[in-house]
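EI: anyone free to look at a 404-residue chain?
SC: sure, send it
EI:
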Amino acid sequence: MLQPEPAVPSETSIPTYGALDLGSNSFHLIVAGESGGRLKVLDKHREAVRLARGLDATDRISQESIKTALSALRRMAERIKNVQRSHLRVVGTNTLRKAENSEAFIRQAEDVLGHRIEIIGGREEARLIFLGVSHSIENRHSRRIVIDIGGGSTELILGQHFQPRFMESLDIGCVSMTDRWFSSGLIKLSRFNNAINDAGSEIETVEHPFTKHRWDVAIGASGTILAAQQAMSKQLGMPVVTLEGLMHVKREMLQAGHVRELPASLASVDRAAVFPGGIAILIALFERLQIEEMSVSDSALREGIVHDILGRVQDQDIREKSVVELMARYHVDEIHAERVAHTAILLLDQVSSSWDVGDEEDRAHLRWAGMLHEIGLDISHASYHKHGAYLLEHLDIPGFSREE
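SC: here you go
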């Protein structure tokens, strides 16, 4: 569990780790220190950027949104400048997955941060969310469904301990749903019900494993669900999220009539602008998945990233496990693959200084590429390298970003 510390020490001998989540609604930063196998939060920062709202009809991020995002990153760059590069990950999610001009934005953002940005797929995002939440709860043995409603996507994960069993990522979030049904800011009953039905139709396409398999508890993460729980606590004295409580929140929003009129006890000024769409999705989730009550975790993607980095440092890299599982799945000749990988590393060592490559990550990626270079043979010997390339490009491989 990540435990907040009151302040960032000016100098510390303990290893520090950082994660920056470039979300569709907000950018989230966390810096944590590790001591005795435990992580403690040293710094936490959030900036509401609303990157998803900057997407135009052609899925291009507007220059105004890019300017806002880069300004936020300049402030965050100051907070991560002392974190060791190998202990820091910067991750982009839904909006940067779909934006047509994401590469141009990423180049500018990398210049500002002085660090590489990884774009991760929806299922990898789900895995990291589950990891972060699982480290924050007391009973890790429970079989649980974890839900995170972000700005542009919603992740659903069913699993136990630290192992997700089923993962899905839906292309709906609080920003995109609000823009679709409440773009003028007006909150009307017909539009609210349409938004709930819209979200329900999306959930219906992936709900089967989450309704078929038993789970003990439901846990929500991130902004929308945390804001919903806080609203119910303030107005109803409820410690958890329930459908009854969500219907109360819905009625309160309808009575307000406009996002600008939402009372502070319902949503902060910052959250109000995207709250209707998020609540519509949450109501649909409760109805479709038959959730009775949901507790809330204050850990999510960024905490999962930190724990994932720590796993890599401590030789518990999920990517190694993923490669081994892929080799078994596609019947790779392990002895031959090991020889190819070993030869590739030897060749890399000979050119590493002149090519300025060959750090630990380079060596790991080359080794994994060598281990997997013949997975296409399981489909056909003819053009097996093309089959293998296609598989690696389109498979969801836990631990790997899209670029990797």
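EI: The two ends are 29 Å apart (CA to CA).
SC: 👍
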